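Format notes (please read before filing issues)

Several people have asked whether sequences and structure tokens are stored in separate files. They are not. Every record keeps both together, in the order shown below: the sequence lines, then the token lines. Line labels are part of the format and must not be stripped during preprocessing.
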Amino acid sequence: MRGGGAPYILLAAAFGLAACSSLDSTRAKSTQIGQPPPKRQPQISPLKRKVLSLLEKKQYRQAIESMNGRYHEGLEKEFVLSINRQLEIGDNAYSAGDYSMAAHSYKSVLNAYPAEPALRKQIKHEPKKIRSNMEFCTSRMMEQGLSEYRCGRLESAIGKWKDLLTISPGNNEARKALDTATIQLQSLQNLKDK
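Then the structure lines:
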């Protein structure tokens, strides 16, 4: 029986190993039952995904607009970043003499300026300074339109005043100048057609 017992021993060993491995997996499962489930990554809302995409593309005004000009819970950091970056665009345009771009940037920031004190502290400029810069820009835009008008470039003057009125719709001086230039341009076109 010397050689005949070896297969039985091997078979018994195999069953023993199988039993041990199933016991180990049962132990592992039982310890997991009492444990909290593994942490899942928080889901990103569609709005946050859109805002992050716009920020990555440096489209700060669009990011502000996609948040409807107000912060949403969970987007405070992105909201403040969008406003501050839009302010930088305005400040850079202001310094470069691009008053239209600066005014549009300042207007979008003023429209979205947060009411929450904790967020207001994180914005680079106070609303008063932004308004002052915007008013300077619109007055420069008015002057640029007048300069174009005086040089006989009525279409350019009209374009500048229309742009100014998108920023400051209540600007009566720009409205009157636009109306006058539009009438004169139509008169000139009528003379050419005769």
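For reference, the curators noted about this record: The chain has two domains: 45-125, 127-194. The CA atoms of residues 31 and 86 lie 53 Å apart.
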